[in-house]
Design goal:
Blueprint lengths: L3 E2 L2 H4 L9 H17 L4 H23 L13 H13 L7 H8 L3 H12 L3 H19 L4 H7 L5 H12 L3 H16 L1 E4 L3 E4 L12
Antiparallel strand pairs: 1-3, 2-3
Length: 213
């Protein structure tokens, strides 16, 4: 089976401008941890790369499910979408009011709610809840923080609230989701550390080799 070499430096060559600031920061931190532990602690290096892989896949899936047509009459303009999303992500740990989002978009509350629904296909409340769940998932993959601490930092009332919302969206508990993603990242990457070649990624058993680039 052919192995496709991929050094950490190449992985870090991904244009960070295409990523959300918090995601880019998480990926840089994980890759840096992997680099520092390649020789001294192989398990830690593998775990960091696996987490980075899972994190990127989650972001790809989220973007694929996002709004695709913002030219709809009555929808928010591009600059409004950018500012509202940035505001939400910067205040996830606190209560976010519709009037605050409307002010960021420089529109009345009623107009903003209608335009938001046309743009995102969901209400502001549903969008904020989804971002909180997404942030919680990021933290579960990039840190070893307890679910209780993650819940509070993402704006949930407590761990039970996080578990209830997370299970409704993902069909499993946060603990099971966290464990599954970490294990899956390891299996998919099948990282081998080869002297002189850096990090070599093998496709999973039974899969097709990744195309060389």
């Amino acid at each position: 089976m052919t192995a496709v070499p991929m050094t950490l430096a190449a992985a870090e060559g991904v244009d960070a401008a295409l990523l959300a600031p918090d995601l880019a920061s998480s990926l840089v931190r994980l890759l840096d941890t992997a680099r520092r532990n390649i020789d001294a602690d192989r398990d830690t290096a593998e775990a960091s790369i696996a987490r980075a892989s899972s994190l990127l896949q989650i972001e790809i899936d989220r973007k694929a499910a996002g709004p695709s047509d913002r030219s709809t009459p009555g929808a928010l303009a591009g600059w409004q979408v950018h500012r509202v999303k940035a505001y939400v992500d910067a205040h996830l740990e606190a209560t976010i009011h519709i009037c605050d989002l409307a002010a960021v978009a420089q529109r009345s509350g009623a107009y903003f709610c209608r335009a938001f629904k046309r743009t995102f296909g969901e209400t502001p409340h549903a969008f904020i809840l989804a971002r909180r769940v997404h942030r919680a998932g990021d933290l579960m993959l990039t840190s070893d923080a307890s679910l209780s601490d993650i819940a509070m930092s993402c704006g949930f009332t407590d761990q039970a609230h996080l578990c209830k919302v997370f299970r409704a969206r993902h069909g499993q508990s946060p603990a099971a989701w966290r464990r599954e993603r970490r294990d899956l990242g390891r299996q998919t990457l099948a990282v081998r550390l080869v002297p002189g070649r850096g990090v070599v990624l093998n496709p999973p058993q039974g899969g097709c080799p990744a195309p060389a680039k």
